[in-house]
Amino acid sequence: YYNKHVNEGTMPNPSSPYYKQQVKEFLDGYDKALSDDKKAYQCQSCNNCVSHCPQHIRIPNQMHRISKLIDEMKKVVG
């Protein structure tokens, strides 16, 4: 869900006067698109996924980064 919005350039923009609404829509979509067991905060940093990534991405690091971003967005909408 996150990558889709990054690739499409539709991530909430802090300089937009509609930022709070954009964040709310992003979070609503995130909640609908992913079941709780698939959300970034569920990553346990076991690293089992790392060896399967053809791009050698440190997936747990990225999952924790996304989880932190989601937490920050939740503060915006209260």
Task: Report on this structure.
The chain is mainly alpha-helical and 78 residues long. It is built from three helices and no strands. It has helices spanning 2-8, 19-33, 59-77. It is elongated, with a radius of gyration of 14 Å.
- Overall SS class: mainly alpha
Kindly, what is the distance between the CA atoms of the first and last residues, rounded to a whole number of angstroms?
22 Å
Radius of gyration over all CA atoms, rounded: 14 Å
Tell me which oligomeric state these chains represent: single chain
Feature tags:
78 residues, 3 helices, 53% helix, single chain
In brief:
It is built from three helices and no strands.
Layout of helices and strands:
Elements (H helix, E strand, L loop, with lengths): L1 H7 L10 H15 L25 H19 L1
Helix pairs in contact: 2-3
